[in-house]
Amino acid sequence: MNHSLPAEGIDSDLFSFAYQAYDELAEGQRWSTWSSVDAVLGHGPQPWPDWVITEDGAIDTELGILKTGKEADVFLLERAVPGDPDRCCVMAAKRYRSTDHRLFHRDAGYLEGRRVRNSRDARAVAKGTSHGRAVAAGEWAAYEFGALKSLWSAGLPVPYPVQLDGTEILMEFIGSGVQAAPRLAQTRPDRDALEAYFQQIREAMTTMARQGLAHGDLSAYNVLADGERIVIIDLPQVVDVVANPTGVDFLHRDCRNVCSWFGSRGLEVDPDELLAELLAQAW
């Protein structure tokens, strides 16, 4: 199994804890929420990977926190069927904050071209009420989950989105055991690896551009180096390059961020040339 961000306090003693039989749930555990979410909107793309646990009797066990952020926190979670060691997987649980915390400091720019479905909710979001902040958190979670589903189905290297439950997204954990894969920014690849990583990112950006999309916040900090492959993460702000008036600006910034990092490692790449390549695919 595999996910996103570097671990900040995973208790490995809890790993596989959910294999045991239970008379009652322990602290940090819950029954699997798989069956309680919307069967169409709340589940990942089919066919579901073999590692996805769909049994009603499965138990979710919190293993620790992977990362804290301004908009959401990411936890490590094990879902397992008690008594069956073959039915167990580790996932990343991304939980958006719903009250008393700002979401994205550039919300207005990212939200161009998007609409909140319910007019009452839209007014609450615009006014910044407690209800509005809760709605906004749910909208961001739903948008990221939808982006992950669409991009994963298109073959992009993103974590498989398992399920959406309110403001919580469960997704594929990128790493080995309970050790998360490093961000690209934390790596020091040799020349061959550097070229291979850039080619993978360029191909991913091209695939997104063909769908008229840009990551919107792409950098070496939002890309994981999982061995020889890269995995792109943190996708709540995916931008429609055509519908968003500043979509091209977001795409250009992605190009600059990516090319700047690779350039600092000795790989000469031109952000304007990359932008031109991507725009040719977007229209």
Structure description:
The protein is of the alpha+beta class. It has two domains: 12-176, 2-Layer Sandwich (Phosphorylase Kinase, domain 1), CATH 3.30.200; 182-282, Transferase(Phosphotransferase) domain 1 (Transferase(Phosphotransferase), domain 1, Orthogonal Bundle). It is 31% helix and 20% strand. The chain has six helices and twelve strands. The protein has helices at residues 107-111, 119-127, 130-153, 191-210, 247-264, 271-282, and strands at 29-31, 59-68, 72-80, 88-96, 161-165, 168-172, 175-176, 179-180, 213-214, 223-226, 229-232, 239-240. The strands form four sheets. Strands 1-2-3-4-6-5 form a six-stranded antiparallel β-sheet. A two-stranded antiparallel ribbon has the order 7-8. A hairpin with a 2-residue loop joins strand 7 and strand 8. Helix 2 crosses helix 3 (130-153). It is globular and about 60 Å long. The protein starts with 28 loop residues before the first strand and ends with a helix. Residues 1-7, 16-21, 102-106 and 118-136 have low confidence and may be disordered.
Précis, in short:
The chain has helices at 107-111, 119-127, 130-153, 191-210, 247-264, 271-282; strands at 29-31, 59-68, 72-80, 88-96, 161-165, 168-172, 175-176, 179-180, 213-214, 223-226, 229-232, 239-240.
